[in-house]
Specification:
four-stranded antiparallel sheet, alpha+beta, Neuraminidase, 5 helices
């Protein structure tokens, strides 16, 4: 460190002792340095500078040559990669994988219903469309409080884990989670706030969803078809269009097919009854459907499914009346039918 030696000689009061202390020199070495001419010291510094300059110049010439020769560059890159591989390759201590990658765990698909506590409720919807879920299964919804001028229309036994299927006169299906319904302490809430049911449409039916069940849909003009209930579930408030209706024609019937049923009975407002085999009714995913019963004057009033061996049944008062000899009304789908049997309700409905 020539600069430090010169500084000590020029500015320290006792340069000999300072040199011995700073550079760990003997007294003789310190005396020799002090007796040297400064020119000699500068010469040593110049030699160091020239040596460094020669090394840097050689490095510059080598780099310039490297840039001018692509083959040499690639050779140098290959050499460096080889050296890196020797130091960090997979077989080295630094390059060996330390993270163990295993198989991704399999997760069970947990349905949303599994997160809801299962409790029995009675879903009550009034004639003016106010809906609520009353705890427990009650048998008489008329005992509940309703707004003035309103009354119960639908009362369904369900569970909080169920989904509610709502069918409108516009031919659309809507889906509601029973756990999302307002509690039964008050009057409930308007169902139109939960689904986008138009003001000019009304509710045809409301039932807990059963994905294994089939439904029969019927329109006021006597058309209809069969559909699997699992295919009517809507994912949005806007619902899912299933039955195509237009003008004065409205969706009128949504009926679950009874287990074991093999025939369909249709009655019109003209009090004509037609019974035909269930297998004549096609299953569709969407559309207007086929003609169930043909009307000259009148519309569709009601539909029921039946077992041939049990005969035609309808509710009368508190009991059920059976017409075992139904063959007089048995025909092909699309016919007009015959006048209903004696004792059939004036409402032209089976229930």
């Amino acid at each position: 460190n020539i600069d430090e030696v010169i500084r000590i000689i020029r500015f320290e009061d006792h340069p000999k002792e300072e040199l011995m202390k700073t550079f760990d020199l003997t007294e003789i070495q310190a005396e020799a340095i002090l007796n040297m001419r400064l020119r000699a010291l500068r010469k040593l510094e110049e030699l160091e500078i020239r040596k460094e300059h020669d090394a840097l110049s050689a490095e510059q010439a080598d780099l310039t040559d490297l840039l001018e020769k692509p083959a040499r560059r690639w050779k140098a890159i290959g050499y460096q990669i080889t050296e890196l591989q020797k130091e960090f390759g997979q077989d080295t201590k630094l390059g060996a994988r330390r993270t163990v990658i295993g198989e991704a765990p399999a997760f069970d698909d947990v349905p949303v219903e599994a997160m809801v506590e299962r409790e029995p409720v009675t879903v009550v919807c009034s004639a003016k469309g106010w809906i609520r879920a009353v705890k427990g299964h009650i048998n008489n919804a008329d005992d509940l409080r309703f707004k003035e001028g309103d009354r119960a229309r639908f009362a369904l036994h369900a569970e909080t884990t169920d989904r509610l299927v709502v069918f409108g006169t516009n031919g659309r299906f809507y889906t509601l989670g029973v756990d999302k319904l307002p509690p039964g302490r008050g009057y409930g809430e308007p169902v139109r706030l939960m689904i986008d049911l138009p003001n000019d449409a009304d509710i045809v039916s409301m039932m807990p969803h059963d994905p294994k069940r089939d439904l029969i849909l019927g329109a006021s003009d006597g058309r209809g078809f069969r559909i699997a209930e699992k295919d009517v579930i809507a994912q949005t408030k806007n619902g899912k269009q299933i039955m195509n209706v237009s003008g004065d024609i409205e969706a009128k019937i949504c009926l679950p097919i009874a287990e074991g049923a093999d025939h369909v009975a249709v009655v019109g407002t003209n009090r004509k009854l037609l019974i035909f085999p269930l297998d004549e009714l096609p299953e569709l995913a969407r559309g207007r459907g086929v003609i169930l019963q043909r009307y000259k004057d009148g519309d569709l009033s009601d539909i029921v499914t039946m077992k041939a061996e049990e005969g035609l049944q309808w509710r009368r008062g508190d009991g059920v009346r059976t017409e075992p000899d139904y063959l007089a009304w048995l025909g092909k789908r699309g016919q007009a039918g015959r006048m209903v049997p004696n004792g059939f309700p004036r409402s032209n409905r089976f229930t």
